[in-house]
Amino acid sequence: MSARKKADLLRGSVTARVTGKDTEGFLNRCAEKGVPFWDVERPEGHALCLRGRWRDRRRFRELAAESGCEWEELRQSGLPPFLLRFRRRYGLLAGLFLCLLAVSFLSKFILVVEVEGNERVPTAVILTELRRQGLKPGAYGPSFEEREVANRALLELPDVAWMAVNLHGIRAQVVVRERVREPAEEDAAPGGDIVARAPGIVTHIENWSGDKAVAQGATVLPGDVLIRGSLELPLAPYSQKPVRTVPVRAKGLVEGRTWRTLSASVPLTGAVKTATGDEKTLWSLAFLGQRVNFFQKGRIPFDRYDKIAKTWNLTLPGGKVLPIALRRETLRSYELTDADLDRDAAQAMLEETLLLRLEALLGENGVEVSHHFSALEEDGVLTVTLTAECEEELGRSIPAP
Amino acid sequence: MERQDGFLERAAERLDLPAEAVGAPRIELVGRHQLRVENHRGILAYGGEEVLIAAGRLVVHVVGEGLELRTMTAGELYISGTIFSVGLE
Tell me, what CATH number does B59's domain have? Predict the structure, then answer.
């Protein structure tokens, strides 16, 4: 775009037709009076087309009248006439004003808080602490002391070693570095045994510290000592002194075969929800952490209802979620009615639950060798029992009394 | 006025001054598409094929095709188009 076109765009221009016998006189008058014009064309005998500055329209008209010519505006272009169109459109002016206000005023507030660099410490924990220190969506940015907030939050977050808060317009970037954990200290208790945690048969035993209390193949009950937390000191040959023992922390590996029995019950008759078909929808708006309800509290006409909520967050291009959200809650009424449960389905559910409990009980090193279920229905209650043969770590450490 | 113009031009010539400094018209033709006239006295006739410009004692007669007055001020004007001839009358 040439400089002339840019100037025309900014200051506005008018294209007009001048008709009369002395159009040249009109041009001379304009030049003499210092009213600039350009792009003069003569499309027909007594008419001229020219362009001039938008703000000189009145002077052009006066000079045309003085020259005995007629001034007819053909077109106005550029920014001033464009803006003038909105002179009476108060809604648009108000919208423009609000937009400018939003850009100049709302951009001073923090709308997004982002946490980076955390792995062990949950983001929610950091955000909660920052919120307590005043850093939250809706906080006024210019009056914010980033370093002071970061230092105060650090005191409350023991697992965070370093924190920096950087403000980028409406976005607060929180960079954290987590504290390196100290290696776990070995239990410093001076002594302690390894005892059986379940009844079973010892299939393998290794004592790394302390003396074996049982042999391979022994049957043990829960609490039986497997590796003793004491060590006999060897005596010199022919010594008459009594045998001395020193307390140690028993260490070792004891594997065994165990038989686990687990049971679970469920009533075969239960209350189920039956939808009545009545629904009520409630709308609310969350803005900077404040919720605005578009309904009156206490106007829910149902005794029992399910609440299904759906939230639409205002998201910037790029995925940044702004603290402005529209929320719809749908309340669906239901009634409770007694119904018989499917026995097979209930048994399958209990069996699955018991297997999960067994898996959790055995831990990572335990293996289930075989299992079987038995079911008993009594007084409307179904009880399923799991009996499983397992191979697992049999011992557990207990401190010395 | 015409006599005064002639006197001033001669005086400028005697004093070794540029004539345009004392108000003599300056006509500048660039190629055959641009004509600039300084110190003019106005346009006498204007058309796409012929333009007559008052320049003191002279009348500048521009003949061409698609002539267009691009801009004009009190002391200067600029014509574009295909210029066949520029004559003084």
Answer: 2.60.40.2000
